[in-house]
Amino acid sequence: MNSAALASSLWIVCRKRPAAARPGWDNRVLEEMRANITDRLREYWDAGIRGPDFVWAATGPALEAYSKHPVVKKANEPGEVMTVGEFLVHVRRMVVDFVVGQVMSGAKDGDMAAADRMDSPTAYYLLHRHDFGLEDAPAGACILYATACGISDRDLEVTWDLIATKGGSAPAVKDADDDDSAEDGEESEDSSGPASILGEPIPAGVLNEKATLRSPPATITAAEIMPENLPDTWENEQTTALAVAVALSLKSGQTLPWKTVRDVITASLTARFTALDSTGGAWPCEYNAAQSIKLKIPAHGDNSGMAYS
Question: Number of structural domains, the chain?
């Protein structure tokens, strides 16, 4: 082509607000917003929309509850109004809760309150690693995810040390020329906590002047990942390897190496405490495929727990 052209077009359809529209109250508007977008979120997810696009797709349906009023008043703060910025914070957080629930549970109707139990950097880290692993990530996607989680990309880089700026402008996952490996019995971990490596090659960007060597974490018994010990991780006697990894790390107070998590899952499968769901991925796997591994509590006589590839 000899002319510039967009690959796609985005349309926002707006209707003029009736002149007789009355002011709204924040508690009712937020309740209506949640009702409006809950079904939409499931529709978008089932349609295969992922990443920051999913987070922002809900903005239009959500704004319907807010924009129908000339002003939205705060019920518990006389004389104060809810701004559109404040409203969108609630919208984005609800969407992030939904996505984190899907990532952690792997279920169609994930735990939408999962992200409420996480701080903003943790929610961002989980979403980033799920979508991009340790590879370079688009700057725009990082910024949109950060905004949705209620944190700035600058805070992610300067305060939390989760991303690094490449070329002085665009945020991306950390990169470095180091190509060392962690020896068995040694753990290389970024001081900010997200990366924890044991007995496997160290990804670029993890080994830097802030990295520390630690003793390997204590062995985790196979029973530790059972529903009675990780109740929030299981739903209808099903979970994913990624959800187990996150839950064990939260319970231990540190990011556990994937090798540690992989070993305990393998032990649980060997002991027939858990089984692999046939609709999931092949086991064993690397961390970036953990979300595809579906675990279940085996029925009597179920031998699928040893179906390794």
Answer: 3
